[in-house]
Design a protein that fits this description.
Strand order of the largest sheet: 1-2-3
Distance between the termini: 59 Å
GO molecular function: 7S RNA binding
Shape: flat
Largest sheet: 3 strands, antiparallel
Structural class: alpha+beta
Helix content: 25-40%
Strand content: 15-25%
GO cellular component, one term: signal recognition particle, endoplasmic reticulum targeting
Main location: cytoplasm
Number of strands: 3
InterPro entries: Signal_recog_particle_SRP9/14 (IPR009018), SRP9 (IPR008832), SRP9-like (IPR039914), SRP9_dom (IPR039432)
Region (Disordered): 101-127
């Protein structure tokens, strides 16, 4: 399992993995206080045993005769500002789980909302 370096790539591939098979996708968060590291993992939760290949070759569901490897995406950080990114990913997954894998994620990501909002003036001193 290799850790992904880019947060945006991790989020995009995680959403693709969930939309491909929402029933078996698993999302795990782990914080290690002693290291100060947050690890996020998204997997398709497929476990394959290679011991049955010799005795039951007809049970393989892949065309090559070998079981398909499971997909595991991991992201590790020790930055405090990445906690906000994790909260957005949590709300994104909650939206996908509650509204279905074909849900529109523009509400959660806020991309359209920030473009549509007019610029606000700050609360500075009146002149």
């Amino acid at each position: 399992m290799v850790y992904m370096a880019s947060w945006d790539e991790f989020v995009d591939r995680s959403v693709q993995l969930f939309r491909a098979d929402p029933d078996s996708t698993r999302y795990v968060m782990k914080y290690r206080h002693c290291d100060g590291k947050l690890v996020l993992k998204v997997t398709d939760n497929k476990e394959h045993s290679y011991s049955h290949l010799a005795s039951f070759p007809h049970c393989n569901d892949s065309p090559s005769g070998l079981p398909q490897p499971s997909t595991c995406l991991k992201f590790k950080t020790d930055q405090a500002q990445d906690a906000k990114k994790m909260e957005k990913l949590n709300s994104l997954f909650f939206t996908l789980m509650s509204r279905g894998p074909d849900a529109d994620l523009s509400e959660v990501t806020g991309k359209e909302q920030t473009e549509a909002q007019p610029g606000k003036k700050g609360r500075g001193r009146k002149q």
